[in-house]
Structures are given as structure tokens and as C-alpha cells.
Amino acid sequence: MDYLKGLNDRQREAVLHVEGPLLIMAGAGSGKTRVVTHKIAYLMDQKGVSPYEILAITFTNKAANEMKERVANLIAVDVDRMWMGTFHSICVRMLRRDIEKIGYDRSFSIYDRDDQKTLIKECMKELNLDKEMYKENSLLAKIGELKNTQVSPDEYINDNYGDFRERNIGEAYALYQKKLRFYNALDFDDLLIKGVDLLKNNPPILKKYQERFKHIFVDEYQDTNKIQYQFVKLLSGHHNNICVVGDSDQAIYSWRHADITNILDFEKDFPGARVILLEQNYRSTEAILRVANQVIKRNTQRKHKNLWTDKNEGNPAIYTRLEYSEEEAFFVARKIHHLLYKGYKLKDMAILYRTNVQSRPFEEAFMAEELPYKVIGGLKFYDRKEVKDIIAYLKFIQNPNDNIALKRIINTPKRGIGKATIDKMEAHAEEKGESLYSAVLERSSVSGLSARAINSISPFADSMNILMAKKELMGLKEFIQETMESTGYIAELEKEGTIEAKTRIENIKDFLSVALNFENKNPEGTLEDFLASVSLLSDVDKTTDDENVISMMTVHSAKGLEFPVVFLVGMEEGLFPISRSMESLEELEEERRLCYVAVTRAEEQLFITSAKARTIYGRTDYTIPSSFLDEMGDTLEIDTSQEKKKEIKKDPLEVKRTMEYNKDNFVPKPVKKKTSNVEVAVGTKVKHDKFGSGMIVSIEEMNDDKKIRIAFDGGGLKTLMLSMAPITII
């Protein structure tokens, strides 16, 4: 096969470079995945490199799977012999094999954000830290920062001994790490840190991997942090054939400790490195690229390049300034209706905003207009309580030292094991230096436990012991189903009998499908392999793209995605660029890169909007347009049509609440209906003008309104705003 066919000159040059370090500086939409996959296929087919000798690191499992599929389509080899995955999944693979050499058991648990929160709460309680002074998220963010900058708890405590608050943070960090170790668990930061520790402190293991991986590829190199840099530097130390792909103009994750200097200093870190620029864009029209180039050229922390395309000029990027944030949302809804009329599909369109809080008016407008949408970054399948409960059962069965998982499941479903009972067992375990499960097994000797409490614990303990034994004898899907049934979890939901409970059962059954799919793809896969694959899913991996709905997300979430039509909304100073970036040139440049990423998501049409007055965080403020709009200059076409409508505007306070859209014009008036004052509760039966009869299954307070979820007899579950829903109570 001709692996150079269809490649441009620069792409061809990158594929043919096979010896020594290589930096491919790949502009947005320049076909970097195509280059990497052709390069891997070329190495195996033309240079005799074995798939076993290739390591490719991506930032999402989705990207890794896509890369594998593309390589498999190019060359008939066993792509599963390649190590291809995220930094975290590669480290897990290494740690599962050899973590005993750094003092852990290979059945370690991987703690997600919820597990981390539970653990830090434990630490705060033990240290008697004031919840008002020390917030869980702030503590975890600080601990993550210290880990990624490789500052140990002892170092931090010693450096801040005279500062009461900072010393307490250091003590919380120390206890957090001690508990992780005791529970035989690693958080996401630890996966990387322990992976590097394993290589640094075990020369034979390092040598084995260095000699094995003759060619190492790293995608999205601009998003790597210092620990990830150390990881690839160590592994590439023998053959020195490292190819990194990235774009300094798309470095947008400094808040995750990504370090742009990794890509800017590549030539210094890897002497003799070659740099190839990919500047031809295959995604966007010329009009859209002009906007992107005009914005990013103001940055100083970058390797200069200029995106170009041989596509046609395309429609101009259009900027519209609306009166109010609610009007902005209905304006976008109106545009979407027009685009649908022209032949676009809902899934062709994305709403991009700087912060998640901006989604609310768009959700309300789209519900009012009956435009289906999904919020990427909202509650996902794997974040649902019932799914997390089942995962906690599996984590505990795999690793009985995992106190966090045990405390989640011991009384779920209800078994009459109350907090006082758990506290007594926990005190017993701490006194003996054992896990909480040891106390469960020794329940009869736990001081202060009543006979009733012991009787409540016994069936749970027996059930867990049986499941731990069955784990070795059953297939993955069969075992998970056995866990769901034997623990009484499904029976409890069936007994509840509500629509919400039925939905939860459906979600659990979907989880069985996930397990079956994993089992089919990994016939030799174990429970620990399955749990690792679930734990390492990113937001992008958790998102399906097969629904015909509008996508709504932050610009950060949009990284790596593309859409025919993009609406970049809320372009106001203090919002985008965000206000805190004004104090630092580095942060302002990152905001500009974020804007560049947003613009380059658009393939055919780009609409940019802002509002003169925005209601956010419960307050309405007047705004000024984003400075980035000035930087775009004459690459934007200014939409003046809204200015001509000023004379028909009604009372601004009335307009500000919301607007009702009709197909030919904006008719500013409140959309609140009499139902907003009606008392409703879970279980209330209602009738909707379109969906018919149904029952309210959940209610969420939202400012002076309510978000209600209704199970309709013939239309499934729908989420509506009470003030706007055309419903009557039956």
C-alpha cells in the first residue's frame, strides 16, 4: 500500500521521518490523526517494526480506539499488541503488573472525584477542620496542585509551619495520602506519579520498557504536565524515537497543571529534534480560518504558523449583539430553526460557552421551542447514583481494603446498618490498624455493638464472602448480574415501584450491556480490568455522538470536536476572556487560545453573540463586548438587524425575564404561565398539550421556577420548566 497517497507535502515529510525525535506542530483540523496512523502503519509495513514495539499515548480512550481502528484499516496486523491508550491507562497497565515493587497490592482501587470527596471529608472530620474555612473542592485542588508539582506533605508542612491555615492543609494532604495507601487505592494523580516512581526506582523494569518501545507517539503534547513529560522522557531514553504531536495554540489546560513549555521547549529537551508544521486545514472555510488566525497572532507564547485551506471562502462569520442574555438564547433558537429549514440537522450544531452556568437560558429557550439538546458535561450515565452504587460493590469485592466503597454499599439498599454501627466498627478497625471489612468480619467482638446490629451485618458479610468466591468462577457480565441480584439492589428498586425506580433499573441493565461489550472485546479481561476501563473514562469518552440533538458545552469540553455550525455565545469582557485572566499575561493568552479553539470547531458557519445585559449568578449586569471581538476586526460581519428592532421593544424588565419566539419575529413578552403558581409534587398527574397524560417524577427548584421531570404515558420522560410547560393538573 502507498502510505503517502493523499498526504500533502508536510504530512508526507512527517510520515517518512523514522529516526530521532520529531515534533509535529499540527494546526487545528490539519489531519494530525491521519499522519500518526499512516506513520505507524508505514513503520510496521515498510520498516519491519513490530506492533509490540510501539507505544502511542492519547488523551482520551475514544481517540485511542479511533487510532487503532484507522491503523487496522491500513495494515493487516494485530493492533491489540500495540500499547495504545491514555497516560492513565498505560500507567495502570504497568502498575497492575509490578506495583508490588513499590509497596501496593495489584488489586488497588482507582478513586474518582466522588471517592476523593468522601475521603477528604473523612480527613477533615478526623482533623476537626472547620467546613466553612476549608472547602472539600479547594482542598482537593490544592492537593492535586502539590502532587503535580511534586511537593510532598512533609515538605509543605515544614515550609508553612508558621501559617496555621496552610499547615492544616498540609496535615490534610498527609492524612489523605496515608488513607489512600491504607485503603490500597490510587487517585488519578497517583496513577501517573506511581507510574513514574515505578520506572525511576526499578532500573530493570525501566530497561525492559525502554528496550521494548522502539517508537513512542504522544498526542496533544501541549496538554502534558511535568509528570507526564518525565514519563515519556524516561521511556524514550534508549531508542530516542519519540514523535509528539500538538499545537501550542491549543494549550488550554493550565488549570489541570498542563505546561505549555513542554511543547515550546521540545527541541531543547530532545536535542536534534526535527519540527514539522502542519498548516493546511481540512475542516473550516477560509472565512472561519481568517477569524482564528487574526485572534491567535496576538499571542507571544507560540510557534508561529498560519492556517490556510483550499476550501472555498464560505459564509462570513457573523457577530450579533443582543439586548439581554435571555434574548440571546431565543435569537440562537430562531437561527437554528432557519438552519433546519435550510437542510441542516440538529446534530450539526453546537452551542459553545465559557462557563457551564451560561447553559440555563439556552436550555429554557430550547425547551420552549421544542428543540432537542444535550448538555455535555452534565449528569452522565456513569455519574448516576445507581451505576456508581453497583461500581462501588464491584470495587469492594475486588479490593476489600477499600473503606470508601464499603461505606457506600454497606447500607445500600437499606439493611438496618446505621451510622452509629458503622462508626463503632470503624473505631474498632482503627484501633487494630485493620480495614473496616475486618471489623465487619469480627463483628461479634466489636465493643458496643448490639445483637440487633450484629444480626443486621451478618447477611451482608455472608453475601460479600460468597460473591468474592464467585468472582473467580463466573464470567464478567454473569458475575455483575449476580451481584445486582444477590445484594438485593434490584429487588429494592422493584419494590419501590415508582417511575424513577424503573428508570434506575433500566440504567442498571444498560450497565450490564457495558459489561457484555467489554467481555466481548476482552475475552481474557478480569473484573479489575473492567473497573479500570470504567474509572478511566473521560468526559468525551462518556459522551455519545449518535443522537440527533443540539450539543451544548463549554469550550474546554469542545476540544477535539467539530461541527458544521457553531454558535459562540456570551462574548463579553469578564466572561470571555474571563475576569481573572486580566491580571496575568499568561492567563490572558490562554483565554485567547481558548477562543481560537472555539472558532476552529466550526466547519461551515460561525455565529458569535453577546448581550448588553446578562443575568448570571442571580444578578443582572450591563456588559461590554469582548476584547477578542476587536482583535477579530474586519474578519467578522456585524449583524445590525437587531438594532432596527429597538423601536418595537417593550418594557426592558419584562423583556429581561425571557422572550417568546415566533417564526417571523421576536415578540418580547413574558412566557410565564399560570402553572408557575400551582402547587405540584412528585406523583402529581398532569396533561401536556403535545405529550398527553403523565406523572411528575422529580422536581428541582431553579431560582423562582421549578424544573420538573414528567413520565408521559406514551412519550417517555421529558424535562420541562414549570413556568413554561403547557400542562394542566388532572
Describe, in plain words, how this protein is organized in 3D.
The chain is α/β, with parallel strands linked by helices and 730 residues long. It is built from 29 helices and 23 strands. The longest helix has 23 residues, at 499-521.
- What is the percentage of strand-forming residues? 15-25%
Report the count of strand segments.
23
- Low-pLDDT parts are 647-676
Helicity range of the residues? Answer: 40-55%
Main beta sheet strand tally, sense and closure: 8 strands, mixed
Backbone structural class = alpha/beta
Global mean pLDDT: 87
The helix count comes to 29
The CA-CA distance between the termini, in Å, is 68 Å
Question: What spatial form do the alpha-carbon principal axes imply?
Answer: globular
Taking all Cα atoms into account, the compactness measure Rg is 28 Å
Q: Nutshell version of this structure?
A:
With 730 residues, the protein is of the alpha/beta class. Strands 9, 10, 11, 12, 13, 14, 15 and 16 form an 8-stranded mixed beta sheet that branches.
List keywords for this structure.
730 residues; alpha/beta; 8-stranded mixed sheet; 23 strands; globular
How are the SSEs ordered, and which strands pair?
Elements: H1 9-16, E1 22-26, H2 32-46, E2 54-58, H3 61-74, E3 83-86, H4 87-98, E4 109-111, H5 113-127, H6 136-148, H7 153-159, H8 164-182, E5 185-187, H9 188-201, H10 203-212, E6 215-218, H11 226-235, E7 242-246, H12 261-264, H13 266-269, E8 274-278, H14 286-296, E9 317-324, H15 325-341, E10 349-353, H16 359-368, E11 373-375, H17 385-398, H18 403-409, H19 419-432, H20 436-441, H21 451-470, H22 476-486, H23 489-496, H24 499-521, H25 527-535, E12 550-554, H26 555-558, E13 563-568, H27 585-599, E14 602-616, E15 619-622, H28 627-632, E16 636-639, H29 652-657, E17 660-661, E18 666-667, E19 685-688, E20 692-702, E21 705-712, E22 716-721, E23 727-729
Parallel strand pairs: 1-7, 1-8, 2-3, 2-6, 4-5, 6-7, 9-14, 9-16, 10-12, 10-13, 11-12, 13-14
Antiparallel strand pairs: 14-15, 17-18, 19-20, 19-23, 20-21, 21-22
Helix pairs in contact: 1-2, 2-3, 4-9, 5-6, 5-8, 7-8, 9-11, 14-27, 15-16, 17-18, 22-24, 23-24
